[in-house]
Write a structure and sequence with these properties.
This protein is α+β, with helices and mostly antiparallel strands. The protein has two helices and three strands. The chain has a three-stranded antiparallel sheet with strand order 2-1-3, covered by helices on one side. The longest helix has 25 residues. The radius of gyration is 39 Å and the shape is elongated.
């Protein structure tokens, strides 16, 4: 389809005529508008501080299904490794160490 030929001069004259009449309209709008009252600013709510959760680290001797078989304090890694080796040699499934964090209950 052929496009319609646009007369740029005619469009320019229409825009300039609209700009000339615009200040008259703006004066009428300014008179009609009342000054707006400033809105009260909303206070931001304080976010609750995250509680500090204390945790203690343990060594768990676990099987292939990640089920804990034995639990040792963190500083007893050698004893935990020995236990894992004993269980691995005696049974069909291998056992290994896994670090586990537990929350300390506040008293």
């Amino acid at each position: 389809m052929a496009r319609k030929v646009i007369s740029r001069k005619a469009l320019r004259e229409e825009v300039e005529a609209a700009e000339r009449s615009a200040p008259e309209k703006e004066k009428k709008k300014a008179e009609a508008k009342k000054p707006a009252k400033p809105r009260a600013t909303k206070r931001k709510s304080r976010a609750a501080e995250a509680k500090v959760v204390r945790v203690k680290l343990y060594w768990h001797v676990v099987n292939q299904a990640m089920k804990p078989v034995a639990k040792f304090e963190y500083h007893q890694k050698n004893a935990a490794q020995k236990k894992a080796d004993e269980l691995s040699q005696g049974g069909k499934t291998p056992h290994f160490l896994h670090k586990h964090r537990e929350e300390i209950a506040e008293t």
